[in-house]
Amino acid sequence: LRIDDIPQDQHQKTLAITVNTFILSQITMDSARAEAFSQLVRSRKSVRAFDERVVEQQVLEAILDDCKWAPSWCNTHPYVLAVARGEKVDRLRAKLCAKYDQAMAATHRGVLSQASLWLRGGTPDGDYNAMLKYPKHLQKHRVSCAKGLYGLLDIAREDKAARESQDRRNFEFFDASTVIFVFVEGSMGPFSPLDAGFCMDTLLLAAHARGVGTCAQGSLAMWGSPVREEFPDIPEGYKLLCGVSMGYEKKDAKINTFRPDREPVRVVGM
Length: 270
Hints:
The chain is α+β, with helices and mostly antiparallel strands and about 270 residues long. The protein is about 45% helix and about 10% strand. The chain is built from 8 helices and 4 strands. The protein has helices at about 10-45, 55-65, 85-110, 110-120, 135-150, 160-170, 190-210, 225-230; strands at about 80-85, 180-185, 215, 240-245. Strands 1-2-4-3 form a 4-stranded antiparallel beta sheet. The longest helix has about 35 residues, at about 10-45. It is globular, with a radius of gyration of 24 Å. The N and C termini lie far apart (about 50 Å). About 20% of the residues are buried.
């Protein structure tokens, strides 16, 4: 239908209808996009058991390509993502588990054993303290999360062996086929980790959108030396912030049903 085919006295009415139809279609599209985004965000979770499937190269590349669109101060992106796959993952798993086992053994034996471990260079040597003490008003959320997770797995508080075994799973990468270690530029104070956080959020959501599970892990920053051995080309002055285990969710794993409650975002001034 051409405008010339419409009677002159109906032009204005037709134009109004056309504009309104366009506006309504845009509102519908915007609403659909918003709903899709909310569903993506709310359905994402930390996966703590992966199956044997390997994330395909093209899928991984697409996820990482999305990360370049993450917000960054002056578009600097002051971080490096070190990607481990295949034999490199196996070597890192073995090295980090050995570090964990030595640390736990020294803890059980007492102060002298811990001192010996320190002299041998076996204590955590990461760039950040991953064993920090939480403020009281945040510690309660940490405790609640731990109770929920261990409760789901039927691990009693006094069962230290079972707790250590589950804790060790962090350094096994929960059997993930891909692990990404996040390094940040060390001279920018809190701002390079802030930008890395934007990147990680994009990474987790981009993976989830493609059916790939992830688990962000601060524990993977405890020992930096084994990671640097595998990635000798990390730029000087960059610090290991954390790691992200990535792969396909093991659907029958009970631990993957864990979904802690979410507290409302604390807001003032509204």
